[in-house]
Design goal:
2 domains, alpha+beta, 16 strands, protease, Beta-lactamase, disordered N terminus, serine-type D-Ala-D-Ala carboxypeptidase, five-stranded antiparallel β-sheet
Length: about 400
């Protein structure tokens, strides 16, 4: 027989410390902290959704397994090449895909819209394959379309082998590319609507009940709910660890946070978003319709055309301190009449020097402020005639 002896005071102190540890370990980080994030994720990026500027990064171009964040590009290709009302029939191959699923059966038919909800909320791998085969004819053809689209968007550190993100050699992305792809996808209204949805009911043919899809992104609901959260996609495999592409909008400003191989993707994404909203604001560098320069035009009755900004140039800038922007004007070579009002003739770029923020280049189109008609033939003839007889006091533009 053994007699268990203990000190009540030590036991009470131990219990108190254990409870305190639990509270500190699981309470979401406080909002509004302006301190620069200290993340354990292998790779991370904070991007301004409007401008595409990277506001904070850690190994942004490191190629890593991306897990189910793959489905962002799957959805982009499906939305751009398919119709939401398309009827999609699940193949045996789709029905047999493992892990996260809505348990499609071979021959089961759902609309493309329902499958997109399953893809982006439930992260259903069977839905991914069904969509891929419907749009591409085969899964392999669809993956080729995914790689082509990622390249067009500018994702140079991304390569796909499948449409769902289950681990496979040669299947990878980077935090910067995931932010870039999410920024592109969020411009598609239906994508934006789906990823902001907390739950959705879709049919389950042959069953006496429907399917309830709950968004896997807990920034939208529950314990980790983040004010203003409106997307985007979670991911997890053993090789990729926790991966999260998150977006949130406050006071008209949308930020995109990406963490890859994170020990706690929600806490670290929240820390990035807090930092961005607290530490940065938006600045209008030049309004729309601002006269920038007069450009020479060949073959015109009037030899120049005024160029104005087609839209405002807006940048994300630190709330504290001043930044100096360098202007750069690029015009199309040899402008020739006729020109139409509103025609793009060049670009105005703002480049940030000595920036604490990386990738700072804001570009806006320059357009013609008025029509520029071609010079009539008789004016050209008269100019040549006057030139031959050297009448310097008479000039025609």
């Amino acid at each position: 027989m053994y007699l268990l002896c203990f000190n009540p005071r030590r036991l009470a102190v131990g219990l108190f410390l254990w409870l305190l540890f639990c509270l500190l370990a699981f309470v979401p980080p406080a909002e509004g902290s302006s301190q620069e994030p200290l993340l354990e994720a292998k790779s991370a990026v904070l991007m301004d959704a409007l401008t595409g500027q990277v506001l904070w990064s850690k190994n942004p171009h490191k190629q890593l397994p991306q897990a189910s964040t793959t489905k962002i590009t799957t959805a982009i290709v499906a939305l751009e090449r398919g119709n939401l009302t398309d009827l999609v029939r699940a193949s045996q191959r789709a029905a047999q895909v493992g892990e996260a699923a809505i348990y499609l059966e071979e021959g089961e038919t759902l609309t493309l819209e329902d499958l997109l909800y399953a893809l982006l909320l439930r992260s259903a791998n069977d839905a991914a394959v069904a969509i891929a085969e419907h749009i591409g004819g085969t899964e392999e053809n669809f993956v080729a379309l995914m790689n082509q689209k990622a390249w067009e968007i500018g994702a140079r550190d991304t390569h796909y082998v499948n449409p769902h993100g289950l681990h496979a050699p040669g299947h990878y992305s980077s935090a910067y590319d995931l932010a870039l792809l999410a920024r592109y996808a969020l411009k598609i209204p239906k994508f934006r609507e789906i990823v902001a949805t907390r739950e959705k009911v879709i049919p389950w043919p042959g069953k006496p009940w429907d399917r309830l899809l709950v968004n896997t992104n807990q920034l939208l609901w529950g314990y980790y709910a983040y004010p203003g959260a409106d997307g985007v996609k979670t991911g997890y495999t053993r090789e990729a660890g926790q991966v999260l592409v998150a977006s949130a909008t406050r006071e008209g400003r949308q930020l995109i946070a990406v963490v890859m191989h994170s020990p706690n993707m929600y806490q670290e994404a929240r820390a990035l978003l807090d930092y961005g909203f607290q530490h940065f604001t938006r600045q209008v560098l030049v309004p729309a319709g601002e006269l920038i320069t007069q450009a020479p035009v060949k073959g015109a009755l009037v030899g120049t055309v005024p160029l104005v900004t087609a839209s405002p140039a807006v940048a994300a800038v630190p709330r504290e301190g001043q930044v100096v922007w360098e202007k750069e004007i690029t015009l199309l070579p040899e402008l020739k009449a006729p020109l139409k009002k509103g025609q793009k003739l060049g670009e105005l770029s703002f480049i940030l020097k000595e920036a604490e923020v990386s990738d700072q280049k804001i570009t806006v189109d320059l357009i013609a402020a008025r029509d520029v008609p071609r010079r009539p033939w008789w004016v050209a003839f008269l100019q040549g005639f006057l030139g031959v007889f050297n009448f310097p006091w008479i000039r025609l533009n």
